[in-house]
Amino acid sequence: MKESAPRWVATIGGGIVGGIRLAFLCGFEYDSGHSLAVMEGRCLEKLGKRQGCSMSTGVLPAESSPTIFHHVGRLTVALFASVGDLTLFSLQTLGWILAKLPRGHVFWPICYEVGVCSVPVVLVTGMFIGMVLAVQSYDTLRIMHFESQLGSVVNASLIKELGPVLAATMLAGRVGCAIAAEVGTMKVTEQVDALRALGADPIAYLVVPRVLACFLLIPALTVLADAIGILGGWLVSTQMLGVNNHYYWLYSENFVTAYDFLMGIVKSMFFGAFIALVACHRGFQCGSGAEGVGRAATQAFVAAFVIILATDFLLGLLFLRLYYVLF
Length: 327
What we know:
Elements: H1 7-26, H2 36-51, H3 68-99, H4 104-114, H5 119-143, H6 150-188, H7 191-197, H8 202-240, H9 245-255, H10 258-284, H11 289-326
């Protein structure tokens, strides 16, 4: 007899379906001038009208009191509202990218800030990551008498995973937070409203150049992180740990392929786009005052880092399946 699906699978599936249905019932429409709290309040107000209570003010019917299910429900509504809002924001940004590219005097300074100014921190962190990886991997391989293959472990790990993720993390911390703070400050000081009053779309003027700069320049930062990490790992392996130089590069050549390098570059392009989109989105949703700007910068980094890790996992599975199909 065929077994039924696990209970947790049914629970998660029901939650996703219910959340999507909730989003359609609430009729979300993206507006960069409205915060998620406003959108959530509108949603709760609509649901409150259906249930005969004023949920927009948090007042429940007299016969019920808030329970853990009410809090979980509010968190679920806020989560789906945030994801839906970010999706609409991304689609609108993509539309502007396809419709009109940014002007050079706006685009090139952003490229300098995103790319050139990020090179020192990427080089320093890449060097130490390669050195640490060599030191930590050596003992494990030496126990199995495979220390001559240390180069394949260090270089494959850097090119496929650590290089792209490292460059993306540095970009999220240095550039993502700065973008969120800059856009958030412009929103708080009503510069975004001024752009809209002058007939310029804030997304086309503020978001598109930053998304394109991160998308196009993070592959170069990834290549730099890979190269300096490989150099650091080679120096530690051959000069400090005594690994034979010939076998270090021989096993690296045998185990690291062009497909691995291409996989890391493609991953980094997704990371760069998501970092810029999340940072700009949090900037547009910034609260009032200096506290709101600081909170937006923090949320931008945390959300971007989580998305980087989740995207790395999903793309890793996709490229693994694609490898077996092609080769």
